[in-house]
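Protocol step 6 of 9: fold each sequence in the batch and record its structure tokens directly after the sequence line. For illustration, a two-sequence batch is reproduced in full.

Sequence one:
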Amino acid sequence: MTVVGLAKSGIAAARLLRQEGATVRATDAKTAEQLGPEVSALQKEGVTLFLGGHPDECLAGADLVVTSPGVPENAKPLAWAASHGVEVIGELELAWRLLPKTIRVIAITGSNGKSTTTALTGHLLAEAFGGAAVWVGGNIGRPLSDFLTSDFERLPDWAVVEVSSFMLETAPTFAPHIAAILNVSANHLDRHPTLQAYAEIKARIWKNATSDSWTVFNRDDAMVASLAARAPGRKASFGAGTAAANGAGFVWTPASSSATVRFANGPESYSLDRFPAPGAHNAANAAAAILMARLAGANAAAIEPALATFRPLEHRLEKCGEARGVRFYNDSKATTSEALGKSIAVFPKSVVLAGGKDKGGDFKALGSLFKERVKKLVTFGTAKDLIADALAGTTAIVRTPDLPAAFAEATKDLSAGDVVLFSPACASYDQFANFEERGKAFKKLAASWVEAHA
């Protein structure tokens, strides 16, 4: 068997296959030095490595190819598999096929908010059932294959898994007990040909739903609602306003927020006043998470206290400093124009840093929001001109080459009450390895500014 791509999911897949007794070869276009010691350590575990390219030897005789999410369909090993009739699956599918069927899976996807909603759903279940009963991972944190190579005193009852469109492309039999699409907007259009094609891949999360499973969807998102209308499984929705049958509703204002879940036995209300993630979009995430926790059997009495103890994820509208009345927020995980819009809507007036590698976002659609709520826009990276041109005339705009230069411009002439919002709306790969590295770089700059102005 051959594993293609040796980021986290590829490493996890190779280890799982070795645990199952398979002969494993693994290949990556990067070199051992670029990939780091964890990949090199696979050799000691019996994995034969082919690094710095994909020679023919890495594929000869392979009866299964396991691909990592970031590997494009036209990559040499996948093209070889297609031409030789060899099955190609992803790490998610591999783990699903080997997962004990006593473990029920909640799977969450969407263009925005899926990491927060996954973490919150796992937190609500852990508080309701006990931490040992729940495992959280997938595209957030640890791959599902890691679950199967971990030692447990007892196996968890639930696995809450974030899944991406890339993962769903190669997961033909994946059939979670509860599956949610939070939203669909322009994202990864550098890989998917159209928004509709991208949405159809997202909808694969519901492909294998049965009469015993739940199809959870955002009724306020027309594209998601349309996909859900033809999906199998029992239906449960969430959205703004009054809760629908088998669903959740939310009301968000800056002063007070709440969520309501309604089943056949009547409505249940939960205050979001102590929920620490700000904004209407996070109220929607909370409504979705509450709904899924209740569908999973979590006790209603455990929900509201657990909302208050949730710790927001790093790089998701994370407050990372304050001095002289100026607040800094790290939103590096915002990699789409829609995510940027949601973050801007939280603050009455902000200085925004945006840029990186464009993913096909519609920045012109944010024009009125920028006019109303953005004091200054500073763009950086390879998308700096694209973003600036799309938003020309909406606010003061400065173009810069990189993040340090953007930060220097953003922190000129600040006043008490200003918010410096780092919400790039682009991928990080032009200048950073990932959004985490990018977010940490911003936080370091913010910490230096706060220290100097304390």
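Sequence two, same batch, same settings:
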Amino acid sequence: MNIYSDSSHSALKYLKNTEVNINNLLIMTGDFNIRNSLWDLSFPHHSSISDDLLIIADSFNLNLLIPTNSYPTRYSDTQGEANSVINLMFLYNGSNELNSHSIHPDWHLTSDHAPLTITISIMEENVTSTKLSIPKNSKEETAFVKEIIANLKNLNTSNITDSDKLEDVINFLESIIKQAWNKNAKQMRITKHSKQWWNDECGRALDKYRTTRSPKNWKIYKKVVKTIKRSFFDDKIQEVVNKS
């Protein structure tokens, strides 16, 4: 969240007096127009408005960050007025690996404010492009079915006297199927023809994520897939019901 609070502290007053519902806030940064000895060593005083800022940050579960270098963030062009630190950065509490930011006085050029930067590592999401599969009407499918049938013949179900023994039989049955599957399934590349429910909307959502690598677009892709799958299988169930 980027904030500009003017000399009357309008933004802070708004945040203090208004119930703001912002979830999963990672960073709050901006020009807060507050001088305070907590973050500006050249300023010997404490401002009461800074207490409001820290309370607001705490309400979002954010902590004030300490920069890796000590420079002013605002450069005065008024004679006799000192440079100051009024641009701050707050980070989500618990992000220990991201506990500092940098001030770049040489980047401010014609601006009277120095930029602040922080590097945030985002784990890359990999979309699986292959899967284990047994092609329909293939020799692998025939071998898979034969192996399961052969093992089922040796499955002892005569001594199921309680729920524990029933669970043992079910677990053994599961292991039979898994073993036969792993033995006969082949790695196949996923395409739009791999799943009957896959459509152009799924493809567009996946292409957009692969282009941007954005966590937001990854969530959108997953949501689209979930909706399309649910709609497809609801239609299939209704089709079976109607035929029956």
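Proceed to step 7 once all outputs are recorded. Observation for sequence two: Strands lie at 2-4, 27-31, 62-64, 66-67, 87-92, 100-103, 116-117, 130-133, 186-189.
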